[in-house]
Amino acid sequence: xxxxxxxxxxxxxxxxxxxxxxxxxxxxxxxxxxxxxxxxxxxxxxxxxxxxxxxxxxxxxxxxxxxxxxxxxxxxxxxxxxxxxxxxxxxxxxxxxxxxxxxxxxxxxxxxxxxxxxxxxxxxxxxxxxxxxxxxxxxxxxxxxxxxxxxxxxxxxxxxxxxxxxxxxxxxxxxxxxxxxxxxxxxxxxxxxxxxxxxxxxxxxxxxxxxxxxxxxxxxxxxxxxxxxxxxxxxxxxxxxxxxxxxxxxxxxxxxxxxxxxxxxxxxxxxxxxxxxxxxxxxxxxxxxxxxxxxxxxxxxxxxxxxxxxxxxxxxxxxxxxxxxxxxxxxxxxxxxxxxxxxxxxxxxxxxxx
Length: 354
Prior knowledge:
With about 350 residues, the protein is of the alpha/beta class. The protein folds into 2 domains: about 5-280, Glycosidases (TIM Barrel), CATH 3.20.20; about 285-350, no CATH class. It contains 14 helices and 8 strands. Helix 1 links the parallel strand 1 and strand 2 (about 35-40).
């Protein structure tokens, strides 16, 4: 069974414009994507500044996008990171959470994602604290469905090095503490997994007592290292093996909204074609759909350098690249030029503060 496909806008760095977001939504809704979760790291009012209310202008933009989602048959959700609320379970933090949820309720959300990533997690009762916060969100009835991103959303040891050693039996305890209707996002064996081992996913699903909802960190290219690359290749044939194993499959998109559509459009094709998936053919079809035939041919010829050499890699002449795409009247060509000029470059400080 093909999992429900969606977008989880969960990248660090420059945020998309609302027109770009609408264009991505329209394109992927037509391709079979069924939900859109809005949770960019740059939206402070959903992360470190989550206690701050949205102003009227921001609420108007969110409501307009929610209406567009509904018109296209796509479920709209917001990702809220109640940053470090699990460290303060007192009445002040609980009132602040309820106030934020009250604002979000007025948007008529279908989905609410509660994120506990990117913060300290080395507490023995971490799972119980987080399950209690999620319970509050369910009681407030902000959305029809609920998702959770654990503090340790992968087996990747980098999470323990950065945020403290994960508590023993954390996933098992979190799964037992959450209502059975709550879905749990998981990125795989690594934060950015290229493939997904079925035995691994089955083990995690067993611990959580529900099928995992996959947070796929491809084609996202945020962070100081990845922002130097454009992730243009399509999804691999092996992803077809995930059918029937995961509840949802959400992709975290590229910083470049138009270019990111190329990879995104191949995922539904992988699931439909299964092991008969023709990767090269699907990639070209997606590139032509996004770029038109002439620009698609040009981009595919440059793809090895853009994806694997990167902006500072050997073999990529940035001035030539800017000349090659700078005169083209296409939004995706402008994204390439902007990227080549360092417009999407990120430093460690940005990741630490968003």
